[in-house]
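Entry: RBM45 protein
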Amino acid sequence: VFIAQSRASGSHRDLEDEELTRIFVMIPKTYTEEDLREKFKMYGDIEYCSIIKNKTTGESKGLGYVRYLKPSQAARAIEECDRSYRAILAEPKNKSSETFEHDYYSNTMRPELRGNTLPFCMQPEFCSFEKAETRIQEPVSKRLSVVSRLPFIQEQLFALFDLVPGLEYCDVQRDPHTNSGYAVIQYSTAASAIYAKYKLHGFEYPPGNRLTVIFLEDGNDSSE
């Protein structure tokens, strides 16, 4: 049923296939691509595996992708793999940030939300917040978890969090068993993540639906 719904929402065949064959997983940071392949090859023929790494250090961020040859194989992996992997269908990787922003403002963004947009682009405010909030004592990181009662649309959520400078990636996770929304957001600096959490935790998106934004451990020293 989940695959049938996804097919109905697609308009281009190769984009459709990528949506249905590539899965996103959370993995131990010690995993190599070979480890990832070994864990998931039992569910079908794997085209490739990739691990998201820190651009500076080259260390794993504990996130990865597995691309199967058939949608049925990806579906089986999601259904049968250990729940600790939190496997879900990945969003297409060939969507540009320009497309995200254009769609967000011209097609999908509601007037109520547009009027409620916060002043992210005010650099003096951002800088003063950065200096003040990096001294807080609670554990912080560059990675955020976003939870919602309603499912997310990748383009909209990306555009929303991209208003804060330094967005590295936005991965919307789709669970076929529930109707709630969950996403992992990562910024290039902890300061950007702190600012995004400060501005968007409790933000109503869409109106009437409050977002819950919390820090996720990213393996770095939070005292930085």
